Amino acid sequence: MSDIISIVFIATGILFNLFGCIGLVRLPDVYNRLQSATKCVTLGTCSILLGVLIRFGLVSIGIKALVAIPLLFFSATVAAHALAKGAYRFGIKLGDGSIHDDYKDESPFNKTEE
Amino acid sequence: MLEILLYVQAGLCIFCLYRIIRGPTIADRMVGLDIFGILVVGICAILSILTGRMFILDIGIAWIILSFIGTLTLAKYLENKNLNE
Amino acid sequence: MQRFALFIISYIFWLLLTWSAEPGSIIAGLAVAGLTSVFFGRYFFQNAGKFIQPHRYYWLIIYLFIFTWECIKANFDVAYRVLHPRMPIKPGIVRVRLNLRSPFARTMLANSITMTPGTITVDIVGDNMYVHWIYIVSEDPVEYTREVSGRFENYIKKIFE
To answer: Chain C contact for A7, CB < 8 A?
Structure first.
């Protein structure tokens, strides 16, 4: 029984990973790609790790999978912030369809031109 | 059943490779690399069920931390460069 | 005090990760957690006395449920935008006012915003947070502040401040 539930969790996780990767290929600029990829792939991998936990129960490897979930969560989100900030400071503009940009005033790359 | 899921998960890496090879800017390539790192953790988790060996999940945990440090380093490098210089 | 809190957290982390009751591993964990707290304690929370106030844990559990629900919603949102043939996106960066003071609470709010539907934090400058939003619903600052951070800000204030 726990085998079937764990396979359902893993299959759901891989489905979400698939959505994230399609977004990585289809969406137009780097910030949108970062959005879809970070959200979907992080939650998909968390779901796979939950599948491992259900498959083995609360033994050593299951606890390890449980500990890996918050670790993955924090590292993925902080890496996403760093990448978005780095890309903006590097000078990559928002894509063509963008309608709003408040960060323009703050970024130092406009200040260096003074 | 689990083997098929493993192949699908490994096949998803092709999307990331496409983004790494084609990416118009350097930031796109780094996003692809970051996502590639997270997908490898999923592969490690499935492999640890499939083979029944516990150390493969340890490799996954170490991979999370190393991929995080690598992405952070590259992002900091990118932040201090400027396209217009 | 903050070193002691870091020591407890890293020791619990070690025990969970090894999950064995052998005396050797427990003593090694003590040594490693001690070294970690000596070297990195000053980077940790400013006032760690908040760890022993039980009502924060009550709000933390409620917050976890709400957060998980938002996460799942975010995934279906992304799936809808990605699989739609015309890709309904209207991206842009908006400025959001922050009401939180402590750095740790700000970090948690930024992480939560990254995982909720359609938003990702780019930077925090002073009291302003810059958020990249994949589908901007309105141009009004009050409206989008409520939309972006209003769901979590009260809970995080109760938990971490």
So the answer is: no
